[in-house]
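## retry 2 of 3
previous attempt timed out at serialization; input unchanged, resubmitting
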Amino acid sequence: MNFDWLAWSNPVAIWWCFLLIVSTTNIVLWFLLHRRFRQWSPRARRGILRVEILVLLCAAYVFGCAFRSVLPRADVQRISLFDTWLSSVLVGRSVATIAELCFVLQWAIVLHQLAHMAKADTARNIAKVIVPLILLAELCSWYAVITTNYLGNTFENSLWAVTFLLIAAALLRLMNDFRGPVRLALGLAVAGITVYLVFLVRIDVPMYFARWQADAANGKELFGVLAGLHDLGTRWTVTHDIAQWKDEIAWMSLYFSLAVWSSLALGGFGLVKHRLPQYRLRPASASMVSRRRSPPVGREPGPAPAPRTH
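## retry succeeded, writing output
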């Protein structure tokens, strides 16, 4: 591999170094999380595979994003930083699909458990819907990379927006059932999702839609399924030109940092979920109200006192 492009004068080199630092930090954080679970749960010490499911799903996302950080690529454009078969879209998109499905499964599991604690049907129903939505988004992504049609990316990211809008709605509903640090954590999650939604709606989705419009105006010829599958597995163009990467840097940087940190936070849910019931807001039940109104035990109500005469 040629590393002559690695110079401080090249913005792409600085960006790639940033991705390496962030990914290394994320891997270290995952191993710390994994060790904490092994210390916390004696049963997990019997083997490395006996891990909390949320931590295992987090591993797929953390290491999948690290792989994509080391070997960045832009799928439809077929560009990469390194000339290796691992930089092919076929490999990279496959890794991304597995990682992203594991990420949304984390959200579904956490939402379902919180909804069960709070007896919140709305949040429970949303937890059931978000995985199928992201499955559909992944199909749109594969359509885009096979055919090189940016309209697939437009629908893909729109579905991510809908998914996280639903997740935010579920978290807002759950905030009514918790207090203290749990409510604060849910509020921070909603704030982070709001920023992500603004980015998708204002920048990401319009970018892909504009690319589709430009290709349509230029009469770009799209690949068929078989030709596209062959192309995404065999063709990639190595470039270190900032002009080729500038539109990818923003979303990749946020994706491989903030999104991974949220996955790590979801992975640690198992460490705190046993404490959450103490922060649950429980409305007074009818039986409690009845007990308050009933006389003390052992003191039966007697007859009304006779009126006093003078």
